[in-house]
Design a protein that fits this description.
The complex is a heterodimer of chains A (about 260) and B (about 425). Chain A is about 15% helix and about 45% strand. Chain A is α+β, with helices and mostly antiparallel strands and about 260 residues long. Chain A has a 13-stranded antiparallel sheet. With about 425 residues, chain B is mainly β. The chains are: A alpha+beta (about 260), B mainly beta (about 425).
């Protein structure tokens, strides 16, 4: 009798699990996509090359090395940024302690003045190094800040609509994200302003598998109002390289870690 | 120190050449044209219509010492930065300013070392320095050179220790470098012997401490984070980098009095922005009782600061600085009838507003000093445009004012200027 009961229970759970496996719920999709986009591996490093193009077609270039370490999967993270280009910011270093529940902590080191500056940073929706990307695009927007709805699915993609819980803190009214069903990579985000007009897009232009992790290696952010865009390419991508937490302190802000940062 | 650095440089370049696949140093820098015109004539300084006209050519490199060299195991990096300057204000031919030539190594897990010419900064103030007794060039600041030139380099050995629990910085400065302060050539200064703003008429001269073991300066900083709040303690033993004491009145001689500075600071998130508090006790070792009218008294300094990001690339900063001349009754009791004298308390308020436009390529900035006790102030307005990744145009005005002639900003009231800098970076 006991054995039969156990059999039934196990069977019940299997059915339920199978059901989830076929059609995951929206929060699962979002959490999985978020983890893939921002939390691959325990840590990682990449060289970042950005080209910013304005409405007149003039371009500017930014080149940096980013080191990342997850404090908690899907939660707090630490970032280290070393600027290679342009010359006027070359050798500057930047540390971000990203928090889920409060403002991030940020420090900037200006080697020309040997100055460690603490950066007040309540606005995560300001431009990242003058590009079309915002801080939140680079370090991720906390998934707890939005209400997520699965608006449609087709053979290849989930379309998720994300509406901010607090509309006053952001410039958009909602945004949609198209997520690849096979690997859960977010392929395109579209931002709509308070009048419902599309004004901003972010697209993944290239996805590669690196150390078994599907990774976006080329992205484009477009500002439809300003008619400008930024293309960012990631190279030298490495995961699980054993970055330790002390990298994200004043010591390495002043003395960049040679083993991770090459010209 | 300079010779040692050059030998080191030669050694490293030689080693680099020996190594088979050694990367050569990559050079960067800029060429810049600077002009600073006076808003009203000042007949007392060298040129009555302008106070800056110069061209600069900076070269810099940050060279990671390649493998096969012992220093590479210590993650050795050689840093060089030097400026060639044609200063047409003084009609000199090109001069050379070595700003940095130092070697950085990490010999073990808990220690880094930086030796050679380097810029030194610590503390939490924004253009106000309490525990940072390292040399500064205030003339550069007041005429509108890049902020980089506010800090003068020191020839020093800096050791960083990172044991568990607390971080320790130790700086040894064998050779004294004074601040560059208004001296009447380019920016007006007050001269008590001339009994007013003297300009080039001044015959004041400052006597530097001699090169000897007893005059070696050193400083400590102990710091750690408690959560995301940074706490630090500071100690400095050396000389006041600005000459505030009199050595020989008959010969108009000033000197840099000996100082011990004890201080501490806290900086962290506060009311949706960043708050900081810093204090320093400056002990005047040659006049600790304050009864020598020729030597600066001990001082107590407090600084309170707050910075906030208001969104849309708009940031504001506020500071309150308070300074108390200690043993004040001893000081006043020993003054002579004709002496100029300082108040016991000095208060300064500062305001900063920075706004970025056009994808952060245009910056408009305001920085204002205002002292209700000295009845003086100094407003700096600046604008910068990154025309491209290479070209940058910076313009601004420096507007010092004051009711009296002897205060920090009041003495420069005839030197209100506008400045233009055009830089090409490579």
């Amino acid at each position: 009798m006991k054995r039969v009961l156990l059999f039934i229970l196990v069977g019940f759970f299997l059915v339920i699990n199978n059901g989830w496996g076929q059609e995951p719920n929206v929060d699962e999709i979002v959490a999985k996509a978020n983890n893939l986009a921002y939390y691959q591996g325990k840590d990682g490093s990449a060289k970042v090359n950005m080209v910013i193009t304005d409405a007149q077609g003039r371009t500017r270039q930014r080149q940096l090395t980013i080191l990342r370490m997850d404090i908690q999967e899907g939660g707090d993270q630490k970032y280290y940024v070393y600027f290679h280009k342009p010359t006027d910011v070359k050798d500057m270093t930047y540390i971000v302690w990203k928090h889920m529940d409060k403002d991030d902590d940020r420090w900037l080191y200006l080697p020309a003045m040997d100055l460690v500056r603490r950066i007040a940073s309540s606005d995560k929706r300001s431009s990242f190094v003058g590009s079309t990307f915002l801080y939140e695009d680079i370090s991720g927007r906390s998934i707890n800040l939005d209400i997520h709805e699965l608006v449609s699915t087709n053979a290849d993609f989930y379309i998720i609509k994300n509406t901010p819980k607090d509309a006053n803190t952001v410039e958009f009214s909602y945004y949609t994200v198209k997520i690849d069903k096979n690997n859960f990579i977010p392929m395109k985000a579209e931002y709509f302003d308070k009048t419902g007009k599309l004004y901003r897009t972010i697209e993944a232009l290239e996805v590669k598998e690196i150390q078994g992790y599907p990774t976006v290696t080329k992205m484009k952010a477009t500002d439809l109002n300003a008619n400008s865009y930024t293309v960012v390419e990631f190279s030298d991508i490495k995961y699980d390289i054993g970055i330790t937490e002390d990298i994200f302190t004043e010591r390495f802000l002043r003395t960049p870690p040679q083993q991770w940062i090459k010209e | 120190m300079k010779i040692a650095s050059v030998v080191l440089l030669a050694f490293i370049l030689f080693s680099a050449k020996q190594a088979q696949s050694a990367a050569l140093p990559v050079w960067h820098g800029f060429i810049e044209q600077d002009y600073g015109g006076l808003l009203s004539e000042d007949a007392l300084i060298k040129h009555k219509n302008y106070n800056m006209l110069e061209q600069r050519f900076q070269l810099k490199t940050r060279y990671a010492i390649p493998a096969e060299n012992i220093l590479s195991y210590w993650n050795g990096v050689l840093v060089y930065k030097g400026d060639f300057v044609v200063d047409e204000y003084f009609q000199t031919t090109a001069s050379y300013e070595l700003r940095e030539l130092n070697l950085v190594v990490s010999p073990n897990k808990i220690m880094d070392l930086k030796a050679g010419r380097q810029v030194l900064t610590w503390g939490t103030g924004d253009y106000i320095f309490v525990n940072d007794m390292f040399p500064k060039d205030y003339i550069s600041f007041y005429i509108g050179r890049d902020d980089e030139y506010l800090k003068k380099p020191s020839d020093a050995l800096r050791l960083y220790f990172y044991p568990q629990g607390v971080n320790i910085d130790f700086v040894l400065i064998p050779f004294f470098t004074p601040n560059t302060i208004p001296d009447g050539d380019r920016v007006s200064s007050f001269d008590s012997f001339e009994r007013g703003i003297a300009g080039r008429k001044t015959e004041r001269n400052a006597v530097k401490p001699a090169h000897k073991a007893r005059n070696i300066q050193y400083a400590w900083r102990l710091y750690r984070n408690i959560g995301n709040t940074e706490c630090a303690f500071y100690y400095f033993r050396g000389f006041d980098p600005s000459p505030k004491s009199y050595l020989d009145e008959a010969r108009h001689q000033l000197f840099y009095e000996r100082l011990d500075v004890y201080g501490s600071s806290v900086r962290g998130p506060f009311l949706g922005g960043i708050g900081n508090v810093e204090m320093g006790y400056l002990r005047s070792r040659q006049d600790n009782k304050g009864d020598n009218r020729l030597i600066e008294n001990s001082m107590l300094k407090w600084l309170f600061g707050y910075e906030k990001d208001l969104g849309n690339d708009l940031k504001i900063g506020l500071q309150y600085f308070f300074e108390q001349r200690l043993n004040y009754s001893n000081y006043t009791a020993n003054l002579l009838a004709n002496d100029y004298f300082w108040d016991e308390y000095h208060h300064v308020l500062t305001q900063r507003i920075t706004k970025l436009y056009r994808n952060q390529t245009v910056m408009l900035g305001l920085f204002n000093f205002w002292s209700p006790s000295d009845k003086d102030g100094y407003l700096r307005l600046s604008g910068a445009y990154d025309i491209s990744d290479q070209w940058k145009l910076t313009v601004g005005v420096n507007l010092p004012w004051g009711e009296d002639n002897l205060t920090d900003f009041g003495m420069m009231k005839k030197n209100k200027n506008f400045f233009v800098r055009l830089r090409y970076s490579f």
